[in-house]
Design brief:
Distance between the termini of chain A: 58 Å
CATH topology of chain A: Immunoglobulin-like
Number of domains of chain B: 1
Strand content of chain B: over 45%
Number of strands of chain B: 22
Order of helices and strands of chain A: HEEEEEEE
Helix content of chain B: under 10%
CATH class of chain A: Mainly Beta
Number of helices of chain B: 1
Distance between the termini of chain B: 57 Å
Structural class of chain B: mainly beta
Strand content of chain A: 35-45%
Structural class of chain A: alpha+beta
Oligomer: heterodimer
Number of strands of chain A: 7
Number of domains of chain A: 1
Largest interface: A-B, 14 and 13 residues
Strand order of the largest sheet of chain A: 4-3-6-7
Order of helices and strands of chain B: HEEEEEEEEEEEEEEEEEEEEEE
Chain lengths: 103, 273
């Protein structure tokens, strides 16, 4: 019974983890030139990142925490101090872009 | 008499290989961009392997005036944007002559695939007394997210990729399907050429060759699609590879002369290292 339980758990684990691990989270940001920045999220298999958590952080402090919109995008006012844009697709599946690298 | 026949055959072979080796370039240095940027594009009608002659795009049989490009646009996330006004005339310096083409820039900013499509005016090939029009696709990706690369645009002549054309390892393969107005073209004749030259964007010129062909048949490689219009080509070397499906378009005449309306796609392979 114990063996069956463990096997079931393993199967469930595989079934759950495959969709997560089968694709890579992606983030791309650009400066709109009007004082704002747009970031777009996605996955390497083409699936939508709509609804995925997005954060702006400054020295570990969260400036903005939201979800990507229906187009898997977010637009925000460009922070004056150095910051990081973070696409959080789950534990171990986050992408960080330094604000200084966004043009 | 026999010698005359052999000579005639040779002349026909030589002239026909010259005609069929034409390739419309829609060149940019890099098809897989880590982040969005403004990219340089060059639109040149040439012979990418041998660089034996650069043609004047839009050359006509009945006028000294070159016909302008019919369409140039991009599709990203399903949105089509006209880019025709970005074209600037240039003279391209090949190894043996100069030919008229165009340069442009494009802001490949948004994530995903940017499908660039160029439909030049038919070009008059005097040696065959016919016109050639190569509807050409080059696909640039930003940040790795696939969005439009496999979209069928329903062009009169089109190669729809079945492999992402910007993420190909050298030594792997490229597969595509030849279509005309959305319908597969069985047993389409396809020619394949390697861009065998360094490209000098600053001077609009080609440089020295990378490899030498051991024999003429290696300059322009020939193959056919299967009954469903699908073909697969093993890519032996990193760089840009052009595929041209000949005469598959629905337009067959132009200004009263025969027209070969071809579908061209460019793919870029990378060294695995």
């Amino acid at each position: 019974m114990k063996t069956l339980f463990i096997a079931t758990l393993a199967l469930v684990g595989i079934a759950v983890s495959v969709p997560v691990w089968a694709h890579t989270p992606l983030l791309s940001c650009f400066d709109e030139g009007d004082g704002s920045v747009t970031c777009e999220g996605g996955f390497s298999d083409g699936s939508s990142a709509s609804g995925v958590e997005f954060r702006l952080e400054q020295d570990g402090k969260i400036l903005l925490k939201t979800k990507l919109n229906a187009y898997a995008e977010v637009n925000f006012t460009k922070p004056e101090l150095p910051y990081e844009a973070i696409f959080y697709g789950g534990k171990g599946h986050e992408v960080r872009i330094n604000g200084g690298d966004i043009f | 008499m026999k010698r005359f026949s052999v000579l005639c055959t040779l002349i026909i072979c030589l002239s026909s290989s010259t005609v069929w080796a034409h390739f419309q370039m829609l060149y940019t240095p890099e098809s897989a961009l880590p982040t969005g940027k403004i990219i340089e594009l060059r639109h040149v009608f040439t012979h990418p392997f041998a660089d034996e002659h650069t043609m004047d795009m839009g050359l006509q049989h009945d006028s000294d005036k070159l016909m302008p490009v019919e369409e140039f646009y991009v599709v990203n996330k399903g949105n089509k944007k006209d880019l025709a006004t970005t074209l600037q005339e240039i003279e391209w310096q090949g190894q043996h002559n100069r030919g008229k083409g165009f340069k442009s820039t494009y802001k490949a900013q948004r994530m995903g695939d940017h499908v660039l499509v160029l439909q030049p005016a038919p070009y008059f090939e005097a040696s065959e007394d016919m016109y050639i029009q190569q509807i050409t696709k080059t696909i640039v990706n930003v940040a790795g997210a696939p969005t439009d690369w496999d979209t069928e645009l329903g062009l009169k002549a089109e190669i729809v990729p079945l492999v992402k054309p910007y993420s190909i390892w050298a030594g792997s393969t490229f597969t595509g399907i030849v279509k005309s107005n959305g319908r597969p073209v069985p047993y389409a004749e396809i020619e394949v050429e390697y861009l065998n030259r360094a490209v000098d964007l600053e001077h609009n010129a080609t440089g020295s060759s990378f490899v030498e062909a051991p024999q003429d048949s290696f300059v322009t490689l020939g193959m056919k699609a299967d009954v469903n219009g699908i073909f697969t080509f093993g890519i032996p070397r990193a760089g840009w590879w052009g595929f041209a499906a000949l005469g598959v378009g629905s337009d067959t005449s132009y200004k009263g002369k025969e027209l070969s309306q071809d579908a061209v796609i460019w793919v870029q392979a990378k060294e695995m290292r």
